[in-house]
Amino acid sequence: MVKDGADLHVERWRDHWVLDKGFDDEVEAMTVRVWTIHKRFRAATKEAAAKVGLQDFEYQTLHALMIRDTPGRASPGELAQELGVSNAGVTGRLDSMEKKGWVKRMPGVDDRRRVEVEATREGLRLWREAMELRGSVEDEVATALTKQELVTLNKLLKKMTLQIEARNAEG
């Protein structure tokens, strides 16, 4: 059987003298493989954003706007929380993106004192184009599996993410 980078990693580190306790081969291999896939998808996202003329943070901001319950619209505070950046950081992003015509600020629908951010048609166009490029890489990686294998993988990954989400909810 052909070895991948995770197999080589496990072989290299298994029983290495610098490890006091060692590790479980299967857990270590799973971690390396998930990390490898994550890095590939992260690189594909950056490449897609650059190809359409967006910086990574601009793509991330548009993405956070578009995947909401109210697609394309949010308060700056909501965006800051979802992106994990400060309010000042979001303000800087929005200032530059507004100048480029990708987002616009407007009074809130329910409360005119509140400011909301909305993606413009051009911002939406760029986001969709980047999403299509990014999606083609995701589809390509998924072709390594049959449809049934992909269903099984998703069931297993869901079990893991539900455990993470439950622990995060606990505090």
How large is the count of helical segments?
A: 7
CATH domain class name: Mainly Alpha
SSE pattern = HHHEHHEEHH
Outline the biggest β-sheet. 3 strands, antiparallel
User: Strand portion, in percent?
Assistant: 5-15%
- Enter the CATH topology name: Arc Repressor Mutant, subunit A
Q: On the 0-100 scale, what is the average pLDDT?
A: 92
- What is the general shape? elongated
What is the name of the CATH superfamily?
Winged helix-like DNA-binding domain superfamily/Winged helix DNA-binding domain
The total count of strands amounts to 3
Please indicate the count of domains: 1
CATH architecture: Orthogonal Bundle
Structural class: mainly alpha
Poorly predicted regions:
none
Indicate the percent of residues in helices.
55-70%
Report, as a whole number of angstroms, the end-to-end distance. Answer: 43 Å
Strand order of the largest sheet: 1-3-2
Radius of gyration (CA) equals: 21 Å
What report would you give on this structure?
This protein has 171 residues and is mainly alpha-helical. It has a single domain (5-170), classed as Arc Repressor Mutant, subunit A (Orthogonal Bundle), CATH 1.10.10.10. The protein is built from seven helices and three strands. It has helices at residues 5-13, 25-51, 56-66, 76-83, 87-99, 121-142, 147-170; strands at residues 73-74, 103-107, 115-119. Helix 1 (5-13) crosses helix 2, helix 2 packs antiparallel against helix 6 and helix 4 (76-83) packs across helix 5 (87-99). The longest helix has 27 residues, at 25-51. The protein starts with a helix and ends with a helix.
